[in-house]
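Quick one, T. Sequence first:
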Amino acid sequence: MPGRASSPGLVAAALGGGAAPFLVLCLALAPTLARSTEPPVQENGASACRGVIDAVRSAAVFDVRLRLPIRARGRFDRVEGRFEGTPWACTVTVALDTADLHFDGPPWMDRLTRSPAFLDAEAHPRLRFEADPFPASRLNDGGPLRGRLRLRGIERPVDFTLLPHACHPAGTLACPLRVHGEIPRRDFGMTAYRATVRDLVAVEFAIVLEDAPR
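Structure tokens:
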């Protein structure tokens, strides 16, 4: 019938013996050969959404914005977590311990940050963020990083941003994964000192994977 694709059997019948068996074999293998030429998905480290965060070489810092001319920056000396999933549905989990919190500033600011008015470190010693699934290519290209943050026993959706990379491979000490964003402290029950402390707290992460080159 005109316009109808020829099957391997019809081609063989038309050609007769000789080259016909070889042609039939080529036609049968054509889809497999085409698939084998597709570029492989990267399977290394962060680009494949696989790896454990190096707790010591990674960093998390936050800036509390005061209405006073005082710098208020804190940091967590350990950042725990891991990348899991597939290149098409990557998830990231990050956990921080308030025992690893240090504040750059007067001692009273460190005590105030740990107090029930803010982090309530004694009652809620762990902070945890779990990202919604996203394509692993975003770890290199940058883009939104949405998920849920549990802080002071309260869980809320938050929006962070993965910064794009000009270096490679991502997740090394020389090329850490960088994330930043802002958290409204009132969403987590921190409403004290509104006259002196602004609502938005700036957060930044620099993530290095275990076994990454130094």
